[in-house]
Amino acid sequence: MSTLTTQYVQKKIFKIVSQTARERGVRAFAIGGYVRDCFLGRECNDIDIVVEGSGIDFACAVGEKIKAHVTVFKNFGTAMLHFEGDEIEFVGARKESYRRESRNPIVENGTLEDDQLRRDFTINAMAFSLQEDDFGALVDPFGGIKDLAEGIIRTPLDPDTTYSDDPLRMLRAVRFATRLSTPEHSFSIVPESIESMRRMAPRMEILSKERIAEELNKMLMCDRPSKAFYLMDDAGLLPEILPWISALKGVENIDGHGHKDIFAHSLAVLDNVAAVSDNLWLRWAALLHDVGKAVVKKYEPGTGWTFRGHDVVGSKMVPRIFGSLKLPLDEKLKYVKKLVWLHMRPIALVDDEVTDSAVRRLLFDAGDDIDDLMTLCNADITSRNPVKVAKIKSNFELVKRKLVEVEEKDALRNFKNPITGDYIMEVYGIEPCNTIGQIKEIVKEAILEGEIGNNFEEADALMRKTAAELGLKPCK
């Protein structure tokens, strides 16, 4: 029997699933994201199959037919296999109920209708029938196809019930509205859902930090991530999960002097970075680059608003923010912290004379992350004054050229002092002491100031001169 949606179930796997369902006397359906993305014209290689019966047993039967390895997740009652470039996950149809203190459901076997009722949004509850008699028929009890056309995110059930049962769905609503939006077809969350989120926001406390961070990372990787943060702010979710970003909101006026909205500026910088880089941690750095401004903000009569030291303060806040969200506390944290700390340095070079010494120090501090730092700084130019922007960008190009020139001449990226502590101890026969650090610092500063070249011979000569002035004599 031909249906209007048959073109979306032409993959070989669907015929195999249909045949297996007939042989086993059960009903099977393609459901969720694959169905949604078919109607949006998006490529999708993740296919969810719901079976009225045991999803694991059914997956094993399909796997045997196609000679594919089946991975079983007994704790979740699911199984997964790969076939012709697709990842196919099987689950038994189920109905769920929740305890207030947990987002982990009490699960029972159910029908397709039960399974669709437990879905988060109408656009994710649509299914394609894989039965022979109506193969490809759309099963859409909540009008998901209409919501797709209208670009709205809506829950199948009352939103208070949906979000109270599993508060993570509030973040998923934000993510889907952001990820599915395109310049031609924007998605929004229906007003009753936004109102429900404001009521249910305190329920976020039952979520694990890891799950929250996972959703935030997915939002940050959207084409225009700022939309997610505006939506979370509107829904009252932002203070619950990112109070440091929420604190950047608003413009304060004193004596007729106001400052720009740091929240809006930070999101503009985030979008600018997202337009040129898919580096998740560079996007985190963009989001957090001005996070210290809410702490150091000060009004000074005759001067206006100042944010002195916000780069240093912000960099010190990054470990606390990462720790609270259970984000990685490894090199990724160090990378974001470094970029937040250094993000003012290239701009400062634009305003001052671009000296070799200043460029050497920037290269020394930034190391291999200098290119990402320059990307962040370029994204930080958000002025609405086209003349000012043109001037800054022109000067910025001068800084970039100077970086290339100094790097080629002095090889200071990931600088390592030619003089080591071990070498000083060996030459002068001394034990570890403050004098060693003093000599190394003098050599390093001389290289960065351009007084000597970045090579062992000149560094060794300066070491011996400095050591002699400090009363040290070589033992060989």
Average of pLDDT: 88
Main sheet strand line-up: 3-4-5-2-1-8-9
Q: What do we call the CATH topology of the domain at 6-150? A: Beta Polymerase, domain 2
Q: Which outline best applies?
A: elongated
Number of strands: 15
- CATH homologous superfamily classification of the domain at 6-150: Beta Polymerase, domain 2
How much of the sequence is in beta strands?
A: 5-15%
Largest sheet: 7 strands, mixed
By secondary-structure content and strand pairing, the structural class works out as: alpha+beta
- Return the CATH class of the domain at 6-150: Alpha Beta
Radius of gyration over alpha carbons?
29 Å
Structure keywords:
Beta Polymerase, domain 2; elongated; Hydrophobic Seed Protein; 11% strand; seven-stranded mixed β-sheet; alpha+beta
Overview of this protein structure:
With 476 residues, the protein is α+β, with helices and mostly antiparallel strands. Among the domains are: 6-150, Beta Polymerase, domain 2; 152-241, Hydrophobic Seed Protein (Orthogonal Bundle); 421-469, no CATH class. Helices cover 52% and strands 11% of the residues. It has helices spanning 12-24, 33-40, 55-66, 112-117, 144-150, 159-165, 168-179, 191-200, 209-220, 226-234, 238-241, 243-246, 262-274, 280-288, 293-296, 310-324, 331-342, 345-351, 356-366, 370-379, 386-410, 421-428, 434-448, 456-469, and strands at 28-31, 46-51, 71-73, 78-83, 86-92, 94-97, 106-109, 127-129, 138-139, 152-153, 188-189, 253-254, 257-258, 298-300, 304-306. Strand 4 (78-83) and strand 5 (86-92) form a beta hairpin. The mean pLDDT is 88.
